[in-house]
Amino acid sequence: RILNRFSKDIGHLDDLLPLTFLDFVQTLLQICGVVAVAVAVIPWILIPLIPLFILFIFLRRYFLDTSRDIKRLESTTRSPVFSHLSSSLQGLWTIRALKAEERFQKLFDAHQDLHSALNAGQVGLALSYAITLMGTFQWGVRQSAEVENLMISVERVMEYTELEEEAPWETSKHPPPEWPNQGMIAFENVNFTYSLDGPLVLRHLSVVIKPKEKVGIVGRTGAGKSSLIAALFRLAEPEGRIWIDKYLTSELGLHDLRKKISIIPQEPVLFTGTMRKNLDPFNEYTDEELWNALEETPSALHVAEVTDEFIQKTIRETFAHCTVLTIAHRLNTIIDSDRIMNNVIDFLTFDPKVLDAGRLKEYGEPYILLQEQDSLFYKMVQQVGKTEAASLIETAK
Q1: Do the Cβ atoms of 115 and 81 come closer than 8 Å?
Q2: Do strands 214-218 and 324-327 pair parallel, antiparallel, or not at all (unpaired)?
Q3: Cα separations (Å) of 253 from 7, 229, 234, 262, 379?
Q4: For 196, which of 67, 126, 136, 157 is 20 to 30 Å away at the CA?
Q5: pTM across the whole model
Q6: How many helices (H) and strands (E) does the chain have?
Q7: What angle do CA 50, 52, 57 make, to 5 degrees?
Q8: What residue spans in the chain does CATH classification 3.40.50.300 cover?
Q9: What is the pLDDT of residues 106-141, one digit of tens each?
Q10: Domain 185-266+274-396 CATH superfamily
Q11: Which intervals hold domain ABC transmembrane type-1 (predicted)?
């Protein structure tokens, strides 16, 4: 839908709407000039012109009642065509490998037929009626209606202008250039939701993360572990206070905040351009520094255990001077963290025995949590099997 609106609809705004509106205005002025000259010569000609004008206004309104809805349907059915074409291009190698070209061609034809299907009878009928649409007056009425049809694109794009804006990019308060030089993070009674009418995904969260600590955040799939990171980056405005080295994040501009903290997503995205542009979009590093970073990274890591060991080694050595929050689905990735944050939030289930109504349930050193058989982290470790659990407990020591 976004691709559709910002391609075809923006094209209508930039190209068709101005030309159509100009054509309508020129035609309207021409009609006014012709009527004025005719009435000046023969004033009685105004008598049939008035009911004729009323008739055309009525026909125009009747035409608009259906044409605007048809235009909306046409714009809506165009979205599956864009979506199918985009997904086909992204998965082109997979389609060819599985020899699924014919099936995807049939899907594309089905979407295209839904968007703009016409049979011979419809084409003939449309042409026969189009021939009758002659004359300046008729053309002017059609162009005035077309202007309103094209305003559908304006309407669709304007929906995005009604979205709630982010906080200011910059504010009058700027942290010093070396901020954050310690890396202490404090959450004070933080509530967080992704929408005004949505449920709280963080509820009264209060926790202090010491400088240079490595904290592992664990929980079940769908538990909302990433909500804490979203609140830290202010992807939506949280309630409460979040401090980074004695600076309130809510008082800083988004640019000052986000350029000082980094996130490595689970599924990285490569943008169009060179590899260098993806690695260093702001040209802050030399080619030699980029090559050194690439050489330190193994060319291939196919074994999960090897990957986990490499991640742990990188966090311990390369990011030794940084505060690191790791969201993990595999316990052995974060078992050697300084602290474990368990089940931060899960708004899908409100079992107070498990989740404590969306509040922070456990926060402590991994080995200490594993000594408490009633702790949720201990139960999670035991669920992976005796052999794996014993290995995790040994690593946590």
Answers
A1: yes
A2: parallel
A3: 31, 17, 10, 16, 41
A4: 157
A5: 0.57
A6: 17, 8
A7: 95
A8: 185-266+274-396
A9: 776 776 666 565 666 766 766 665 566 566 777 787
A10: P-loop containing nucleotide triphosphate hydrolases (3.40.50.300)
A11: 1-113
